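Researcher: I'm comparing several assemblies side by side, and this is the next one on my list. It has 476 residues spread over two chains. Same procedure as the others: predict the full complex and return the structure.
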Amino acid sequence: MKVIVDLELCQDHGQCVIAAPEVFRMDENSKLVYDADPDESMRRYVEDAVDVCPLQAITIED
Amino acid sequence: MTEAPSSSSGPLSWDDLAYLPVSDPSFSVQSELVRQARDHNWCARTPYGLAVLRYDEVNRLIKDRRLRQGSWAWPAHNGVTGRFADWWGGWLLNMEGEDHARLRRLLNPAFSPKMLTELSPRFIALAHELIDAFSETGQCEYVSQFAEPYAARVVAMLLGIPQEEWPIIAEVSATIGLSLGVTFQQELPRIEAALDRLFEYCDEIIADRSATPRDDFATTLVQAQRDGERLSHVELRNSMALLVFGGFDTTRNQLAMAMKTFAAHPQQWALLAERPELGKAAVEEVMRLNPTVTWVTREAIADFEFQGLSIPGGTTIHLLSESAGTDPAAFENPAFDITVEGRKPHFGFGGGAHHCLGHFVARMDMSVGLAILAERLPGLSIGPGAEWMPLSGNTGAHRLPLRFTPTPVRSPVG
């Protein structure tokens, strides 16, 4: 599974971190960092993150 | 652009800050006082703590994890304890950390944009139905004839409440809304009675959907689960009550602020009528310039330093959304224009962990509603007798007579 975040759109609200903390987190400067290639078992949590992102900046490829 | 004199990165003293009397009923977030304070520095002092006035600082502090949501202590600030204070503390908005994250994870799927596509035609039909009642007369009292029933019936649609019961939603929400105002303490008995009624109502919905699940939003909430975890009855009830209160009051008020904005910009209103696809941009622009939530509150968890200012733990921080949205440093031309693309996002839905849960619904129902209003209420102006709320806290209109060029009744679409 490939996760892509449009960092131009991303406003670092951190809703994806709440939805899928295993894949997304905020660094010490409150900026988003994420695992672009998470385990398949994370899919439904990443899907929740895609849905909840206020900017709709996250997509899943395959 | 020249840098404002006192915005250097050196130490900043509270004594150097301008003072804004935010709790004064005559205070306006759009006043010259606020503009001058914003020119002077990124923040100002208030009776409660700090007001943040510029885009960049609002944007960073609204997401800063050294702050918690500020309204959690509102009952205590007003000397209110007991039932109301207990309920308040259990609402999603007033929770933090893992308790908040767990609840939010369970609630989020019901608010997904995916759930909305089937609602759009119902919003369109509702807007036409309401406008049909007055379009031929060329005038209306917009709050009671459109904003209020529209916002309440959208909530009723979400929860699967019979449409004709919308006045209950409106009445209960308006009464609970008094808790956010200056008369909070005097009104407490009424507010508690309204909450009792709302909770009874939510209990009925929960019982009904638990027994007979339907294909609707309320059932999605009742059945929400993740990794074997579910919402408790109290959590469900609290969340539904927050949805009713948060979804109705703010939408009604924001729809009134939209008319205020467009009445002052007749060319933009005509443009929206011609190009209904600009409805989405219209919502964003209205919320940038005339947000109903004029400030988002945060509270410092512990002592910390920001931009050279020492902020003690417990300080209440008002993040002024309109002041940030009109900050000349962030918006080269901040004038209202629904055709401008690529504006920075506004803070009308808050931000960070507490970003508005229902914003996809609100954005859709308001964009649909505004585009139809523009088409059917051409030549819009505000009539005599408008009664506005103070431009502070959560603002809007109590009464808003509108005048426009009469248009024929039209049978609802869909």
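Model: For your comparison table: The CA atoms of residues 253 and 396 of chain B lie 4 Å apart.
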